[in-house]
């Protein structure tokens, strides 16, 4: 991967081009392996740092990594996040495991997941792989961890009312799953409570579920249920687990259909959770109070020009990563921070907006444009900066004969 990327390093590519190459020449080399075996953290970190040094030409990052991973419309570069890719490749196995085919390879994972009521049921539980059977292979353990990670980002969680595979309900540090009970329809903590919110006595329990159980077993389980969980189980309605198929999974306001989810779907879900606001927005908001929808500026970049170099220029201005003399002085690369063209202090706003010379250039350009096209257009500073020509009836005028 490193050699391939190095070959392209010398070319004069835009950030967009490099982001694409990082995916197609870089990470793609590792995808097959990463989907088959567990990838250690050190490998993930090494790969990611190679990819970033390719993007920034072995120099320091210019924008936050979590911004770079976002789609172009969010001010990112769609840059490949290898860690998320590894996680998504693993989670893509859920879809394969749940497919209708009766492949031989499924025998092994199914053997393990059956111990917890099957994969679909387990995914609904409030599990922690540390409290599951130690024999569960790392590959599947990680799969469960990654799924849990995705889940934890969603607030509404009734899974802690499920009795089985619950990390809060442990006997000798292991969560429990008792198949015989499960088959009798005992799923929730509330299934063990009477109408007063107390635990059923052993006799009541045996009668209710027509199930002979060991006294010690029974009280061991009751003792394992923390008081908060018991209270919550009594106060909240019994979760609705079986009215729809277990294949549907609720993630905040989204319903995921587990057998249909592919790697790219999981990838997108993870990337969304990483989203942060680009640092530069704060400074731009100070200059243009009325402009709140900064993300839109990034969308406009791709509408206002087809040329990737020009797009990149806009991208850099919006991220404020074009150094003016102000930055050069700040980093001790230059003693002087006055503008090249006038005696005022230089800054990114000065160069592109406030400097008289720039203003003249824009005026001249607009005059030329208006003469040439027989139009009467004017662009505000905000429109120039944000590539937004809405409201200036820019396109309608051009299109009229
Ligand atoms: Zn100036």
What tags apply to this protein structure?
single chain, 401 residues, mainly alpha, 3 domains, two-stranded antiparallel sheet, two-stranded antiparallel ribbon, 53% helix, 3% strand, disordered C terminus, binds zinc ion
Please tell me about this protein's structure.
- It is built from 21 helices and four strands.
- It has three domains: 2-82 and 267-274, no CATH class; 88-263, no CATH class; 280-399, no CATH class.
- With 401 residues, the protein is mainly α.
- Strands 1-2 form a two-stranded antiparallel sheet.
- The structure holds zinc ion.
- The site of zinc ion has 7 residues, from loops.
- Zinc ion (ZN) is lined by residues 339, 341-342, 344, 350, 355, 357.
Task: Give a quick precis of the structure.
The protein is built from 21 helices and four strands.
Return Rg in Å.
29 Å
Broad structural category: mainly alpha
Strand content: under 5%
Q: Which regions are unreliable across 5 or more consecutive residues at pLDDT < 50? A: 392-401
Could you state the order of secondary-structure elements as H and E? HHHHHHHHEEHHHHEEHHHHHHHHH
Let me know the largest β-sheet. Answer: 2 strands, antiparallel
Distance between the termini: 53 Å
In which order are the strands of the major sheet placed? 1-2
Layout of helices and strands:
Elements: H1 2-9, H2 15-36, H3 41-55, H4 65-68, H5 82-98, H6 107-114, H7 119-124, H8 138-152, E1 170-171, E2 174-175, H9 179-183, H10 202-209, H11 215-224, H12 227-235, E3 248-251, E4 254-257, H13 263-274, H14 280-287, H15 294-304, H16 308-318, H17 325-330, H18 348-354, H19 356-373, H20 381-386, H21 394-399
Antiparallel strand pairs: 1-2, 3-4
